[in-house]
Amino acid sequence: MGQKFQFPKGFLWGAATSAHQVEGGNHNDWTEWEKSPKRIAELKTRGLNPDDYISGKACDHYNRFREDFDIAKSLGHNAHRFSIEWSRIEPEEGKFDEKEIEHYRQVLLALKERGLEPVVTLYHYTLPLWFVRKGGWLNSHAPMMFLNYVSKLADEYGSIVKIWVTQNEPETVARESYLIGWRPPHKTSFLSARRCLHILLEAHKLAYDVIKKVDLDSQIGIAETLVYFDLYKNTLLNKLTLKLIKWWRNNPLFSEFIKYSDFVGLEYYYHTRVRFNPFTSKWGIQFNENKKISDMGWELFPQGLLPILVEMKKFDKPVYILEHGLADAKDQNRSWYIKESLKFIAQAMQKGVDVRGYFHWSLLDNFEWQGGFGRRFGLVEINYKTFEREIRPSALEYKKIITLNSIEI
Ligand code: BGC
Fold this sequence. Notes:
- The chain is of the alpha/beta class.
- Helices cover about 40% and strands about 15% of the residues.
- The chain has 15 helices and 14 strands.
- The chain has helices spanning about 20, 30-35, 35-45, 60-75, 85-90, 100-115, 130-135, 140-155, 170-180, 190-215, 235-250, 255-260, 305-310, 335-350, 395-405, and strands spanning about 5, 10-15, 80-85, 115-120, 165-170, 220-225, 230, 265-270, 270-275, 320-325, 355-360, 380, 390, 405-409.
- The strands form four sheets. It has an eight-stranded parallel beta barrel with strand order 2-3-4-5-6-8-10-11, surrounded by four helices.
- Strand 12 and strand 13 (about 390) form a beta hairpin.
- The structure holds beta-D-glucopyranose.
- The site of beta-D-glucopyranose has 9 residues, from loops.
- One of its GO terms (molecular function) is beta-glucosidase activity.
- Belongs to the glycosyl hydrolase 1 family.
- Keywords: Glycosidase, Hydrolase.
- It comes from Candidatus Sungiibacteriota bacterium.
């Protein structure tokens, strides 16, 4: 028998989602791209069915959020992270849609009624079309446009929401949308990516200040995914490669974001063992053992959480694990992965890291961006034809840990 680790009273246990991935019926820059003739032709060339890659009704969570929160409650969760869709709130610049504002008020109240603490993300990858047409995150006025939207939400929901996440993964936005161009608006320029990251930082700061003005006690931060990097072999070239990759991939501006935050919002999905070898696939850098992998092909490496969390001590701020999970349609590894990861989180806490909550990604199977509907990250399985929900066994294993509020480490 190992040692028992007791999580502190008030520890937040839950799962996370994002608007575009679960709601259905959105109209934003992603929906435009999903349906564009170019994207559809590209999917067909790869022998894929475009319908599997168009978010469409997603999980119909927009209409079924109460049912979904009932499930979360039945699974013992006491908190829930979700995002508000900017394109619904402000479909035209400066014009707010009162019906949608009321919708999200109902979402927040539904969480509160079930004893689930809301953690609200304000920007999780998708953008209103008018904003994108004006240059998106490259426009120097973008922070002010974001501020306008955030002030409205702070005024409307400031008395209900205590934990705000201004942006989900600014580095991913800069890299995937502006550097390698896999995601809208498909730019491929290092300078644009850098500019985007700086503008996002500016927007975060403005959002932070305006929310604080409404409620000084609110906790505000960002969510960033950090990679656990180590070396394949201790050679000079590998070490230099590691330094460069780590600098960019773990967000060169990360500490600036954290300086202007009340907490460190962490996501953890990846381990990368770096070896410089430009003549192989995976950009010549990734040489993992891959003893266990998810349906995304990502190595399951729970032990990476410990060094990452311990490194966060330097910020001397509370930490929330805002996302952590795996695509696992057969639910083969999810229980193991959750348990193992929580053990490493517990060990980090024993070493003095002030972790305040854990949000599994995700509550529901959902629309996995470029990966479409085939990647199943949910504690709850979705039947996309009937929209029936079915709780996966791993969700019940997670519930056991939540109920005990402790784990054997
Ligand atoms: C994103 C989620 C995404 C998950 C799995 C995270 O980085 O925030 O939206 O579904 O990764 O790819």
